[in-house]
């Protein structure tokens, strides 16, 4: 450093020393700093139970602070470690600032003299180089290990494999092992004695970028067109878990919810056996079925065992086995179903199903038919 610039630095230092904080600002500053230590509002520590109303605003909101699956637990552990380390550093720095503000504030009778200047201390400089490097290194290693544990490229032994397809604005779930497709609710097993069973998801998109996020079960993973991502779940508690498409994908994005039903293996097997069946044929509802089959419904929807084989929209073969419709927009009640068939836009504005302009009688008959699709 040249002599001239040294002189400049010195004159800046001199000015800085005169810039003392007015006394009346000390306490407001201290109070502001102390605010940073206020406890955060407690997170709801709850599993979404089977009876909780789903996706209608009354269910407890999903939270990553109540993990119920191995990868979600790993993520939370790393989160606490990082918050712990950086939080401690933050507290130390804040405390030193607060101490300096109070201890070295301008006092009556202070002169404008430059205090003794200290230049260069090898131990101190070594310490503040090595320590932060170590901390960054630890955080890097722990995060890297976590990522390797959670991000799996191939399915772990014995896991259930499901292909998840994001559509604007609903989720399709394909079970290739079992040969059926469903929508809205993802069912996955857990051992009857709650031993974890892995589920390995293959994430694909039919249109734009979506993001699959069920905070209690796993980290957020993008669903990208022309790309395949994977997500590993290993739940440890049965229940209904709520998630949400976490990447803005257009008009009805906010109503693109995800429901994951984690159920004991024996129940899961029963559910699979039912899903594998063709649609129920109930002679009592032939009129409704005929209307359904001669309307454009069949171009968009599939009902296995009938002429309806559209793949643009959710498979309706076992519509009544779901507790929600419209990917969680509303619970699947007879009233909501009727309203949906009358005009889906009143329930899920912007969604890709038009009002089909059926007469009231036709709607009643079609809904009677749909209600037999158990
Ligand atoms: C142009 C294509 C199209 C036609 C025609 C169509 N639908 Fe749909 N339908 C959709 C789409 C897309 C969805 C998913 C909407 C969403 O959740 O965003 C849907 C959802 C549904 C659902 C809710 C399914 C679920 O599990 O969430 C029902 C029930 C349904 N349609 C019944 C019908 C009936 C009955 C007809 C004929 C009267 C019909 N649809 C005609 C596209 C269509
Ligand atoms: Cu979305």
Walkthrough of the structure:
A hairpin with a 7-residue loop joins β6 and β7 (221-223). This protein has 374 residues and is an alpha+beta fold. It contains nine helices and twelve strands. The protein has a five-stranded mixed beta sheet with strand order 3-2-1-5-8. Strands 4-10-9-6-7 form a five-stranded mixed beta sheet. The protein has a domain at 283-370: Cupredoxins -  blue copper proteins (Immunoglobulin-like), CATH 2.60.40.420. Helices cover 36% and strands 17% of the residues. α2 (26-35) packs antiparallel against α3 (70-103), α3 (70-103) runs antiparallel to α4 and α6 crosses α9 (360-370). Mean pLDDT is 87; it is low at 9-19 and 40-59. The structure holds heme C and copper (II) ion (CU).
CATH domain class of the domain at 283-370: Mainly Beta
The percent of residues in helical segments reads 25-40%
The CATH architecture of the domain at 283-370 can be named as Sandwich
User: Which regions contain 5 or more consecutive residues with pLDDT less than 50?
Assistant: 9-19, 40-59
Q: How confident overall, as mean pLDDT? A: 87
What is the radius of gyration? 30 Å
Widest beta sheet: strand line-up: 3-2-1-5-8
Please identify the structural class as seen in this structure: alpha+beta
Strand content: 15-25%
Shape annotation:
elongated
How would you spell out the order of helices and strands?
HHHHEEEEEEEEEEHHHEEHH
> In CATH terms, what is the fold-level topology of the domain at 283-370?
Immunoglobulin-like
What's the tally of helices?
9
The profile of the biggest β sheet is:
5 strands, mixed
Distance between the termini: 82 Å
CATH superfamily of the domain at 283-370: Cupredoxins -  blue copper proteins
List the bound ligands: heme C, copper (II) ion
